[in-house]
């Protein structure tokens, strides 16, 4: 499958590599294709403008800083229409002291307004990139929650997350982003404020599994 990743930072790079390992064709959509810092990505991906990458792609990942997310969507020039757009972002305040949205809307719902006509799925926002690179801990797998108003798209992304090595759960419609984004903040706070570091993941423990 041709997959565009918009944002080639921590998240975009790790997910791009993982998806490339699953034999998908990776296209990074960049603001500046000639920036030398992206040269290493050419080993497993092609580099294009945001408009070109999203035009060619069948599936789009959005992994930009929140403050740039609307600009990145605008730069797609509508090429998301009818396509699954996976929103990996978190609406973090610039000083990382909290979230800019919650209660009556969420980043995921704002993305769906800005990318009207896309099949928006909220996913890959609730854990760190070390877990995206290696989701498995001994016999346990990192939790991944998937929310969307589009049931088919939600199931598609759940299966993709499972293929990447996560223990994935469908988590309701896109308004569930109102819970997933604060949940991401719990991970961020434990990692960076409480000193746990980035090498931990949330998992689901089910009693019946514990007895197997
Ligand atoms: N880091 C994590 O562990 C983690 C985990 C889950 C979710 N998230 C969320 O995922 C998002 C990305 O995080 P990150 O850590 O990967 O950020 P990052 O390392 O700062 O990378 C952001 C990328 O977005 C690109 N970008 C910025 N503005 C853009 C625009 N207008 N158009 C196209 N590309 C643009 C940047 O490229 P240039 O500046 O070079 O143009 C850069 O490649 C954030 O919303 C974050 O909250 C992060």
Mean pLDDT: 96
How is the biggest beta sheet arranged?
Answer: 8 strands, mixed
Work out the helicity level: 25-40%
Q: Provide the CATH topology.
A: Rossmann fold
Question: Which labels suit this protein?
Answer:
single chain, 212 residues, alpha/beta, Rossmann fold, eight-stranded mixed β-sheet, two-stranded antiparallel sheet, 10 strands, 36% helix, globular, binds NADP nicotinamide-adenine-dinucleotide phosphate
Compact summary:
With 212 residues, the protein is an alpha/beta fold. The protein contains eight helices and ten strands.
Write up this protein.
The model has no long low-confidence stretch (mean pLDDT 96). The chain has helices at residues 10-21, 50-56, 66-75, 107-114, 129-133, 151-163, 177-193, 207-210; strands at 2-6, 25-30, 45-49, 59-62, 84-87, 119-122, 136-137, 140-141, 143-148, 167-170. An eight-stranded mixed sheet has the order 3-2-1-4-5-6-9-10, sandwiched between helices. Strands 7-8 form a two-stranded antiparallel ribbon. The protein is α/β, with parallel strands linked by helices and 212 residues long. Helix 4 (107-114) links the parallel strand 5 (84-87) and strand 6. Helices cover 36% and strands 20% of the residues. It has one domain (2-210): NAD(P)-binding Rossmann-like Domain (Rossmann fold). Bound molecules: NADP nicotinamide-adenine-dinucleotide phosphate. NADP nicotinamide-adenine-dinucleotide phosphate (NAP) binds next to helix 1 and helix 3. NADP nicotinamide-adenine-dinucleotide phosphate binds at residues 6-12, 31-32, 35, 50, 63-66, 68, 71-72, 75, 88-90, 92, 125, 128-129.
């Amino acid at each position: 499958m041709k997959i565009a990743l918009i944002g080639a930072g921590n998240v975009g790079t790790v997910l791009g590599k993982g998806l490339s390992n699953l034999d998908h064709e990776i296209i990074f959509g960049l603001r500046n294709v000639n920036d030398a810092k992206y040269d290493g990505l050419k080993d497993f991906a092609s580099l294009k403008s945001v408009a070109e990458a999203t035009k060619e792609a069948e599936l789009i990942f959005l992994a930009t800083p929140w403050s740039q997310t609307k600009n990145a969507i605008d730069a797609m020039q509508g090429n998301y229409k009818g396509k699954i757009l996976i929103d990996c972002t978190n609406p973090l305040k610039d000083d990382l002291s909290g979230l800019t949205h919650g209660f009556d809307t969420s980043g995921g719902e704002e993305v769906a307004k800005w990318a009207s006509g896309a099949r928006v799925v909220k996913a890959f926002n609730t854990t760190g990139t070390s877990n995206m690179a290696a989701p498995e801990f001994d016999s346990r797998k990192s939790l991944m929650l998937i929310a969307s108003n589009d049931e088919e798209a939600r199931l598609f992304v759940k299966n993709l997350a499972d293929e990447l090595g996560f223990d994935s759960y469908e988590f309701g419609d896109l308004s569930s982003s109102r819970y997933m984004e604060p949940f991401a903040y719990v991970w961020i706070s434990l990692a960076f404020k409480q000193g746990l570091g980035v090498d931990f993941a949330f998992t689901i423990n089910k009693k019946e599994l514990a007895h197997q």
